[in-house]
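Re: that backbone. Tokens:
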């Protein structure tokens, strides 16, 4: 007799289903971690652009769109991955705050609601060199979240 019986085919499909159920979440975690790493790099590049802006203007003020202090940056892409078209964005990059009369800044990367990273939590970097990742996605940075790879 040649071929497979129905039971053999069902066992093969069940094995494939089990392997997929195990592998897919790991794959998604890997993709999310990759996008987060890219957003971290893009935040650092935006921070470099902020420093260049300060070197020319003697303040961090006015680096956002339309010469504002907060919001989408005018001096760098407002999305991450910055080397991809905006249609592929995973995070929105913003200048969240300018403090101390233009002497300090806080930048954020917020996951977009339509991206695979939508529940990954915000990233923050400021001019003091502090880094934070809202790893539990509760919209605040706890003291234990002041690191990027917690």
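Recovered sequence:
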């Amino acid at each position: 007799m040649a071929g497979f019986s129905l039971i053999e085919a069902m066992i093969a499909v069940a094995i494939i289903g089990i392997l997929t159920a195990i592998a897919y979440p790991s794959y998604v975690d890997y993709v999310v971690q990759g996008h987060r790493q890219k957003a971290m790099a893009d935040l650092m590049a935006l921070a470099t652009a902020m420093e260049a802006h300060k070197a020319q203007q003697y303040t961090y003020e006015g680096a956002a769109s339309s010469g504002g202090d907060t919001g989408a940056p005018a001096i760098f892409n407002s999305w991450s991955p910055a080397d991809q078209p905006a249609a592929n964005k995973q995070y929105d990059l913003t200048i969240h705050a300018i403090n101390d009369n233009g002497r300090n800044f806080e930048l954020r990367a917020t996951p977009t609601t339509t991206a695979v990273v939508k529940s990954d939590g915000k990233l923050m970097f400021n001019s003091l060199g502090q880094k934070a990742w809202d790893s539990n996605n509760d919209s605040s940075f706890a003291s234990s979240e002041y690191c990027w790879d917690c």
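The chain has a mean pLDDT of 91. Residues 6-57 form the longest helix (52 residues).
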